[in-house]
Recover the amino acids of this structure.
């Protein structure tokens, strides 16, 4: 219990994916496999960038931050989800649930902001190549990353505080595989209008704001690429931003449906499926997308495998 006698519920039950024992074991193996791949893929990117000086540039610095973020993001909820698959109780305490919700959504906000920063970085690299080195220097790139992390954690702090003040006096089953804001709102027996408004405001500011920065950046990028006279120049320019563009499309396609629409108008079951695609598959696919579509990283990995 977080706030004295403001809630009669000391713990919640994470419903997850109800079904037979065989289904639970199958999902456990699937989630575990995806989690291990996510860790290995993102740790590999961090290790490769950290040990090769030719990759010590702002673009790869941002990529390392994204990989580190994805490791933290998945670790926030997947171990709990794995435990629930093989547990009979499937309970989580009120403080643990609130803390999980805070970190999941804070780290999620940071990812949107980092992707916007990476889009701006590609804009400078392609549209202003002559002054890229001076504009995107070490200090400025560090400030952008620091600002993204701080903004992400601060943006959800108010929402987490408001949720901690809610009263839960009835059902305690959360229809999700982690502590989701929509589920908390659905379970509360007090007025949640203010929380919903703050939730929607954060979604619009963070998701649509970062999406706007990314969209404008790519409008300028594409217009610049179209003015390049040679096909080789086109290919080189597209290769520097194609991986990032792929990740952005996957992330925003799922996110706008879940987080921008008013919470009570969406089906919790549908949200659970879309969130699964968004929260589990995106961190898994990120390192493979960036590896498979990045010439420099592929060359380094080939060299590493030849020496084994």
């Amino acid at each position: 219990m977080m706030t004295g006698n403001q809630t009669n519920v000391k713990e919640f039950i994470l419903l997850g994916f109800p079904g037979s024992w065989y289904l639970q074991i199958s999902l456990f193996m699937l989630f575990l496999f995806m989690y291990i791949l996510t860790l290995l893929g993102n740790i590999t990117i961090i290790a490769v960038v950290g040990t090769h000086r030719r990759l010590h540039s702002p673009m790869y610095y941002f990529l390392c931050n994204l990989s580190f973020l994805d490791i933290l993001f998945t670790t926030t909820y997947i171990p709990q989800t794995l435990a629930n698959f093989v547990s009979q109780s499937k309970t989580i305490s009120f403080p643990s649930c609130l803390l999980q919700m805070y970190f999941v959504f804070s780290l999620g906000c940071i990812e949107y902001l980092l992707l916007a920063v990476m889009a701006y970085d590609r804009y400078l690299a392609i549209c202003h190549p002559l002054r890229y080195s001076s504009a995107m220097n070490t200090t400025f790139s560090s400030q952008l990353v620091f600002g993204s992390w701080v903004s992400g954690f601060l943006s959800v702090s108010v929402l987490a505080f408001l949720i901690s003040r809610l009263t839960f006096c009835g059902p305690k089953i959360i229809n999700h595989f982690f502590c989701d804001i929509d589920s908390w709102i659905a379970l509360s027996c007090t007025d949640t209008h203010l929380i919903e408004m703050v939730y929607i405001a954060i979604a619009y500011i963070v998701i649509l704001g970062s999406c706007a920065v990314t969209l404008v950046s790519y409008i300028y990028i594409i217009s610049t690429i179209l003015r390049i006279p040679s096909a080789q120049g086109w290919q080189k320019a597209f290769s520097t931003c194609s991986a990032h563009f792929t990740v952005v499309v996957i992330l925003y396609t799922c996110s706008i449906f879940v987080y921008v629409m008013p919470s009570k108008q969406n089906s919790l079951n549908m949200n659970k499926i879309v969130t699964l695609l968004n929260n589990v598959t995106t961190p898994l696919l990120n390192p493979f997308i960036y590896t498979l579509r990045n010439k420099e990283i592929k060359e380094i990995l080939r060299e590493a495998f030849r020496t084994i």
Confidence is low (pLDDT under 50) at residues 1-7. The domain at 11-307 is CATH 1.20.1070.10 (Rhopdopsin 7-helix transmembrane proteins). The chain has one domain: 11-307. The longest helix spans residues 94-127.
